[in-house]
Specification:
alpha/beta; Rossmann fold; 7-stranded parallel β-sheet; 10 helices; 7 strands; 14% strand; globular; binds 1,4-dihydronicotinamide adenine dinucleotide
Length: 264
């Protein structure tokens, strides 16, 4: 409020403006559904201003409606993260608009599963572009504003497939394994600037990505999961909430498997 005649109202108004300014700003890619949606809703509930990124404007609009209804703060920025120039511009625009960028959650990911013998160059390139190159582009653009704020939390979504390998997922496992080395390197380059970088490696989580696997595959995997069930998106979101918090400043360069014990 630029001008206010009533002192009490002025104070209330200034206070709410201040808290908007004080909010940590978080970008979450792949926020239209599944794990990304759960992360976005959780970070908003924890008082972050969340920038919702995915290709589908309609999918993001539904998430925004839910966050708004719960009293959270967010904005929608549709983007194909496979388009490096568009993603770079998005990150820069967010930092410019808000004067800060505190948290980056690179969650969006795709699978194009098939055995190596049949894997096409296109299936390889598509997965590497969306799952790995986009993370490089977003992190490179994010670290400058994070360095200015002397605070940053980068959380990259890996997978147990990137730790153990998985038949039919040479492209996907390679992209997720590469994220681990990439993330450890950012942690080393940026640690002294107050920026942490970690990977969360989910096991089998109930989302559209695992829905396509069918009941037979899910039943076959259950005996290998010590907690004997699939995980929920909210269980990944709670790990992200902690890693992105102010109190997690000494936790960096780690890969945390949130997988019911599957990969251990
Ligand atoms: P999902 O398929 O349900 O959702 C993926 C999200 O990424 C959607 O919002 C989609 O719009 C977005 N996305 C995909 N390609 C995009 C692009 N080119 N540009 C912008 N947005 C794009 O996936 P889910 O299950 O929620 O997975 C999220 C992350 O967790 C992924 O990185 C995935 O590899 C990882 N993960 C998931 C597991 C699971 O069991 N669901 C297991 C291990 C890892």
């Amino acid at each position: 409020m630029a001008f206010c005649r009533i002192p009490a109202l002025c104070r209330i108004s200034r206070h709410s403006e201040d808290s908007a300014i004080d909010k940590r700003v978080a970008i979450v890619t792949g926020a239209s559904r599944g794990i990304g949606r759960a992360i976005a809703e959780r970070l908003a509930r924890d008082g972050r201003h969340v920038v919702l990124v995915a290709r589908s404007a309609e999918g993001l609009a539904a998430v925004k409606t839910a966050i708004d209804a719960a009293g959270g703060s967010c904005e929608v920025r549709p983007c194909d993260i496979g388009d490096g120039a568009a993603l770079n511009a998005l990150v820069e625009a967010v930092a410019e608009t808000h004067g800060r960028l505190d948290i980056l959650v690179n969650n969006a990911g795709i699978t194009r599963d098939t055995l190596l013998l049949r894997m096409t160059d296109e299936q390889w390139d598509e997965v590497i572009t969306v799952n790995l190159r986009s993370v490089f582009v977003a992190c490179r653009a994010a670290i400058r504003p994070m360095m200015r704020g002397r605070f940053g939390r980068i959380i990259n979504l890996g997978s147990v497939s990137g730790i153990t390998g998985n038949a039919g997922q040479a492209n996907y496992a390679a992209s997720k394994a590469a994220l681990i080395g990439f993330t450890k390197t950012i942690a080393k380059e940026m640690g002294a600037k107050g920026i942490t970088a970690n990977v969360i490696a989910p096991g089998f989580i109930e989302t559209d990505m695992t829905e396509v696997l069918g009941e037979a595959v899910k039943a076959a995997v259950l005996p290998n999961i010590p907690v004997r069930r699939l995980g929920k998106p909210e269980e990944i979101a709670s790990a992200v909430a902690y890693l992105s918090s102010d109190e997690a400043g000494y936790l960096t360069a780690q890969t945390i498997a949130v997988d019911g014990g599957l990969a251990s």
